[in-house]
User: What shape does this take?
Amino acid sequence: MTPVNTRPPAQHLVTEAVELVVAPTAIERALHLYEQRQAHDTSVILQARKILTQHIFGMVDQGELDEEKLIAGGLAQLKAVECDHGIKSARTAYKKPVKPLRTPGRGMRSKDHR
Assistant: This one.
């Protein structure tokens, strides 16, 4: 079954142009600005690209066509994610904290130390 497009032909062409040209350009420009602000490793950049892609295409789906607004919205989303829980590097995000070794000392019985 072929999906039915309910948009008028002219609006369909504009939306298609935004999805094929404007949105990818906005994603790249927003990512470039994000990288300029602070150096990040590859894993953070990949996460940021995914966040930008989802958010910017969501804005396009809601009817936003202006590239500058798409960039600003994408950067605002990255900032919100960073404030919320951060975008962590794969190098540091999965390191387990090192527990100090406990040695039996005064007041500890050998059966307490396991």
